[in-house]
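Troubleshooting: if your tokenizer reports a length mismatch, compare your output against this known-good record of 115 residues.
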Amino acid sequence: MNGLVLLSRQNHREHQGDIHDYTIQASDDGRQWREIARGELASTFDPQSISFSNTVTAKHLKLTALSGFGNDPTASLAELAVIYAGPKLTNDNGGDIEYQRSRTATTDIDAGIDV
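Known-good structure output:
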């Protein structure tokens, strides 16, 4: 993977749970962790990308929120996606895999999707 794309919660106009300072760690065994990124995010409803300085191969990934905005002690995300850097993926029929949006368990997050 080359990075992550994060999307903050979309249902709180006061940006509750938005992550400010973060660290990202990777592990192959879930016990020994190495830091692969550290930084700051903005308080926004727009998707934000975190690019890693090197391509990372790992079985486990840990995002830790170190701080939020203001006095809000919570941390939350609507979505987190990995920026894949491996070989081209194919489905069982040998065709290209295409992204398909899935419904969540929370209808307010699915706004704009026919349910």
